[in-house]
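tl;dr need the bound structure. longer version: we got a ligand (S-adenosylmethionine) that a collaborator sent over and nobodys looked at where it sits. i said id run it. heres the input, straight from their email, havent touched it
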Amino acid sequence: MRFSKFFSKQAKKPSGLYGRFRMSKIFDKGNLEMNTYAKQILDINPEDNILEIGCGTGMLIKEISRELETGVIDGIDFSKTMVSIAIKNNRSNIKNGKVHIHNADFDKFPFQENIYDKIISINTIYFWENPDFTISKILKLLKPNGKLVIGFHIKEDMNKMDLDNSIFRLYTKEEVVILLGDTGKLENITIETKDSCSKCICCAIGERNKK
Ligand SMILES: C[S@@+](CC[C@H](N)C(=O)[O-])C[C@H]1O[C@@H](n2cnc3c(N)ncnc32)[C@H](O)[C@@H]1O
């Protein structure tokens, strides 16, 4: 297998020793700035119920849970390897009920509808096999007026990396806005950007309408 295919598969669903020891470091270091930026945009209230889709090593969950009082955060990731690290990184808050982590495919997991004030997902949009289905499902889980933040890098920047196009689906900012807007259920859709050393950091933001 070519390295670009192997690496892309690991980025989509880390596994084995490479996933545990290499991808986890790449996520924690390489995605830190986007995670920090997106968390700031999420604008957490202490009573928020939050969901993170594709939580990886659970470091963002750890940071968000510091700001919650009565609120809780759920994380979901379909990689067993990532979930075991995320559980380790959030052990005390899992014990006290502030954090829940599920090992499952987001598209298939039976979440309750209308329960989240905020949903966040960082660097996962590239792997959504049926983006219209995934975004519709996200919007069913958000409460009316709930906020969605999706962190990503644009096609132009990602194309500089040696990634496998059959695994990574890349987007322009405009394509993400169209994807979110097509649902008819998100309002005030905007893209915030931050220049970073090699790739521009983008966060798509929207609010679920009241319908
Ligand atoms: C590139 S990593 C990003 C991890 C983390 N959000 C970060 O910024 O460091 C993508 C993560 O999403 C998870 N993932 C991808 N598709 C998923 C799906 N359909 N359901 C649950 N998790 C998914 C992968 O297992 C992986 O841990």
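gonna send this back to them w/ a short note. Residues 16-30 form the longest helix (15 residues).
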